[in-house]
Amino acid sequence: MQRKSSHENIYYNGAVNVISADDFPKTFPLHWHNHVEIAVWPEDPDADKDIDHLPVLQVNQTAYRMGPGDILFIWPGEVHEIVENMSGRLVGLQFPVALFDELPDFKPFFHFFRNFHRISGSEEPDLALQIMAHIRRMLSVQEKRGTFSGVEMVICLYEMLMDFGTYIMNTVPEEGNSSSVGAGRVFEKISAACSYIIDNCEHELTLESAAAQAGFSTCYFSRIFKQFTNYNFVEYLALQRIKKARLLLSDPDKSITEISYQAGFKSISTFNRVFRQYRGCSPSEYRKYYLR
Questions:
Q1: What is the mean pLDDT of residues 91-101?
Q2: Residue 288 CB neighbours (<10 A)
């Protein structure tokens, strides 16, 4: 983001872009992009709150009024807007989603990370403070601009994601198994099934084939998959096809019809209907919000 600008200008120092409070836009219109963005109010959660001037960001048609210690995750492809940041409290991070894909340990977790948007400094203080410590370190590294600052920020980012992933694993449902080891194994199997669906969503997939990837019966897989992901198999498959279509929509040379088939939809009408269901607008409208 450029200093006090009305538009974003994505750049990376290595792989992580740190946006200071002075450079974080005061307002910014609806848009989306293919990287991860984190908006942060890096203050003590117990600090006094000026309710009339809290920053407001909108993500996927949901408005988030930020408070001290709050952290807001904006995932690739999510239409968002900086409604108000006139007091200049917010700082930010941006990094490419490829950082998830480059490490096999992180890739299966990506869907579970995406279930989180705001981490409240007042409602989840332990997690918020843990993540905030890593973000403060990245801000410090960026300010010092040492020889290996880009590398150090990536290390900080991975440490933050490790702590975040550990929190997620410790809060997933255990489905009748009180053993944390047992719960972790179920999580890994569901993660493997998620990766299978994500990697093959443009093809004909069945509930039976996804259950086989996890090594579960169809009935058990259907129930546990819903508990872990908050979607049934059909909904999750449709969501992954929409995400694939979202990536294709960033290519101006591809037609909407071409994209619908490449993403695994059998008809343009189905594609338009499902896309609007998950994104709140048509594919052509969504494409207009893309920020290169």
A1: 86
A2: 11
Model pTM score = 0.81
Q: What is the mean pLDDT of residues 256-283?
A: 93
Q: Which of 143-147, 245-249, 251-255 has the lowest mean pLDDT?
A: 143-147
- What are the residue ranges of helices labelled H in 179-232? 180-200, 207-214, 218-229
Q: Do β-strands 71-74 and 62-65 pair in parallel, antiparallel, or remain unpaired? A: unpaired
Amino acid identity for residue 101 in this structure: D
Identify the pLDDT of residue 51.
58
The band of 47, judged by pLDDT with boundaries at 50, 70 and 90, is low
Specify the residue for token string 């600052």: 149
Of 292, 217, 228, 20, nearest to 138 by C-alpha is 20
151: which 2 tokens? 């590398």
Q: What confidence score (pLDDT) does residue 44 get?
A: 55
What pLDDT score was predicted for residue 10? 47
Residue spans of the domains in the chain: they are 17-171, 180-230, 235-288
For domain 17-171, give its CATH number from 2.60.40, 3.40.1130, 3.30.2010, 2.60.120. Answer: 2.60.120
Average confidence score pLDDT of the chain: 84
The superfamily in CATH containing domain 235-288 is: Homeodomain-like (1.10.10.60)
State the DSSP string of 88-131: ---EEEEEETHHHHTSTTTGGGHHHHHT--EE-TTTSHHHHHHH
Both tokens of 292, joined, read: 């290169």
Residue 194 in contact with residue 111, Cβ under 8 Å?
A: yes
In contact, 224 and 191? CB cutoff 8 Å: no
Taking the CB of residue 78, how many other CB atoms lie within 10 A of it? 19
Q: Residue 156: phi, psi to the nearest 5?
A: -60, -45
